[in-house]
Amino acid sequence: MSVPLQAPLRQYQQFATEIDTAVQSALSSGRWLFGTSVDQFEKSFAAYCRVPFVITVANGTDALEISLIAAGAKGREVITVANAGGYTTTACRIIGAIPVYVDIDPETLLMSPQHALAAVTKDTAALVVTHLYGRMADVEAFRTGLAAMGREDVVIIEDCAQAHGALLNGKRAGSCGDLATFSFYPTKNLGAMGDGGAIACHAPDIAAKIRALSQYGWSQRYCSTVAHGRNSRMDEIQAAILLSKLPHLDDWNERRRQIVQRYRAAASAAFNCWNTDSPAFVAHLAVCRHRQRDHIRAVLSEAGVATDVHYPTLDCDQPSQQGLPMVVHDLHESRAASREIFTLPCFPEMTEDEVSLVVSALQSNG
Ligand SMILES: *Cc1c(COP(=O)(O)O)cnc(C)c1O
Question: Which one from 43, 122, 188, 245 is the annotated catalytic residue?
């Protein structure tokens, strides 16, 4: 037996009847954009996230790009981390914002509030906090720190692409920042069958601006009033699929957490699996850390356990970024982690046998 890192087909097989029905009705509605499914999904997902407004877009990177434009970040500085897969960097480059990389907290691998606040300058427009691996960062710490500096103007954007449904101090991921972005890439905790994304926000005027930015800058049909608009939208088929999946999200997240708990209990201290079992962690990825990372991965592979590294290269070290404007603060924790982390299989449809195989491979090594 071998255990894959991801197996999204299984979720479709398990819910094929519901999903086929949803797709069929989206097709026969004859409205494949701007129909009832998109509208209903936006409302349902907003209610689930406990935010007043959700605007769907084409993918999670567009959600970041449009949020940064809405935050006025064009040509200005955006504080981010270098260990979160490059999505914020991509969005910054598209709009000509300057990424400012700050180090992570070695315990959580999330952005360190202390380092982020120290990197704020007069040019800072926004701060993107990524809830990496499904672990929710304490957004309040950033907000309080910015307020103490008199910098409430810095827009806080939560990147929730790995954290659908996470709950910290009674607040959902996506409800704490000024803006929040989601991706529904197929392997995310809530996944479409194709691309999808969304932006959550609190203020009606900001919601209207984001809606306009996602459609040519239109405030009404053929009347473009918001600068730097583009076209980015979710189609009815993806929205119908997401609507049918949303009621299962909490169960899936619980199953993911259980799997990570099994790994934590099995792994020796050398593995340093720091993920918590609180609802603030939705176990998007089961990431471990080990000094002999490459050796351990080879041994696990021999045992039939697929692994990966999220992510092997810091954003500022990517070949595409060389020579482009950026500010790189001391990143020694980010660098150390990128050499030692690896990811174990973790998805809700894993069988007990598969979980057990990973557990015994962890127990016999390390
Ligand atoms: C997946 C992901 C994105 C981008 O999502 P796409 O839909 O693939 O554009 C952004 N941020 C994070 C943290 C992600 O994991």
Answer: 188
